[in-house]
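Quick review question:
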């Protein structure tokens, strides 16, 4: 069976500055993988390459075994960026953007899953609250929850979540991670900062200086007493 996501010896950099070196990993359908590493290690760059914002210098990125074009690639991926993009429009429109034509109840359902429904309802205009560009007036965590609702409503085969470093409170994060863990028949790739939230993942890839230096489950990596263990204890 194909892996939904496959990075094969991918190297890349911005301008002439190398960032990733021969990065290889596969995420099969039904599995949850995480990428961890220090700030600047190249984690978000992996997400951006998967989305084809940039092309690799070397190596291949396959989705479902194929080298897809930009449009098809993005149809395959529900993406929650580290810095959510919200546009000038209502909250309802910002969530619906994940799947134009979604019904009212689907929008509300997605917001509930993303732990956003309660705060939205408390706003004087609720789902009809008009956001300014960049989501002005909302906290970082609220913006991220809207971005999560947008990703949930899209319901694509790949769920790619580039967690913001600190914008979600722990309760929200735990609730949402529980939902993510329950996603079936998808390939989940989470870029995680709080390592406690990914202990039960099928595989954790540790990125250091643009290379994957360790891959394994939480317990295995702790036993190894290497880069992950140091990151976990820090
Ligand atoms: N658009 C860009 N142009 C030039 N350099 C960039 C660009 N985006 C990222 N970089 C550089 O590439 C390296 C990797 O960045 P990346 O955003 O992938 O790191 P990260 O692991 O996601 O970090 P963080 O944990 O802080 O989000 C960094 O040195 C960063 O400064
Ligand atoms: Mg990042």
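Suggested answer, residue by residue:
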């Amino acid at each position: 069976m194909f892996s939904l996501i496959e990075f094969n010896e991918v190297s890349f950099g911005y301008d002439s500055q190398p960032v990733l070196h021969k990065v290889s990993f596969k995420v099969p359908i039904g599995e949850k993988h995480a990428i961890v590493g220090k700030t600047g290690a190249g984690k978000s760059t992996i997400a951006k390459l998967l989305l084809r914002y940039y092309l690799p210098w070397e190596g291949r990125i396959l989705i479902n075994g194929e080298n897809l074009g930009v449009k098809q690639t993005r149809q395959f991926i529900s993406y929650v960026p580290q810095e959510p993009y919200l546009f000038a429009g209502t909250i309802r429109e910002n969530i619906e953007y994940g799947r134009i034509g979604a019904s009212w109840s689907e929008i509300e359902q997605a917001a509930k899953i993303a732990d956003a429904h309660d705060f939205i309802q408390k706003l004087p205009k609720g789902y009809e609250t008009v956001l300014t560009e960049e989501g002005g007036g909302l906290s970082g965590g609220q913006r991220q929850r809207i971005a999560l609702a947008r990703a949930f409503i899209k319901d694509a085969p790949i769920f790619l979540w580039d967690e913001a470093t600190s914008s979600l409170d722990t309760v929200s994060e735990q609730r949402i991670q529980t939902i993510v863990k329950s996603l079936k028949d998808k390939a989940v790739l989470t870029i995680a900062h709080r390592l406690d939230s990914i202990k039960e993942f099928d595989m954790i890839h540790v990125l250091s200086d643009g290379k994957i230096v360790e891959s394994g489950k939480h317990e295995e990596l702790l036993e190894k007493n290497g880069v992950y263990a140091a990151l976990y204890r820090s």
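Why it works: The mean pLDDT is 93. The two ends are 38 Å apart (CA to CA).
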